[in-house]
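Ticket #4471: structure export looks truncated?
Reporter: QA, pipeline team
Priority: medium

Steps to reproduce: submit the single chain below to the structure queue and open the exported record.
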Amino acid sequence: MHVSPKYDFEISFLEEIDKELYPEDLVTGIFEVIMNTRLGIYVRFIPEIDGIDEKWPFDFVDYDETTIQGIRKLLLLESVYVVTPSDKWKGETKKINKEFIAKCFDVADIENMRDVVVFFISKADFELYENEKEKMSVSDPHIKDNRYKNFIANLEKEYKLPVFLKTQIINSPYLSDEELFLLMRKRDEKGNIVVIEN
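Actual output as written to the record:
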């Protein structure tokens, strides 16, 4: 896991490759952003899924977990929050309901399942965030020197990924009150997401 500085919520990165569940060549480019590292709100970034913006929800009947596209579809359905590129649907958010997911996996009990929320971004933004992830990652988030302090102060100014997480995911209507609380946030009486002051 690679940890980046906390600026007003903590971000970590976990490469799908590091989990060693699937062959490396099938999961290249897939990573998770973990907001609040200790308790974990996971947002999985999945590269382009063929035909995802042609039919919604996409076909899962003939998926093959020995292919790149099959693994991408599988990991999408196993997630709660997903970011994936589509120039056609960039800026849109779509949900896959848990009933559809249960049908895909032939699961009868859906009580503990959740819908999947998919945030679509442009292909260019996906590539940008992937590159920023590499630059933001540091080996030790507890360094006390001045360079580290400057890095924290400039994080949101220099990088687009934290801004996207804040404006498009945290400030979306999809996070639960419990998840917002983990990020030191809450909904005010008008439904706006605000920071909880200490």
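Status: closed, not a bug. The export was complete when the record was re-opened. Leaving a note from the reviewer for reference: Strands lie at 2-3, 11-15, 31-35, 41-45, 81-85, 93-96, 116-121, 185-187, 193-195.
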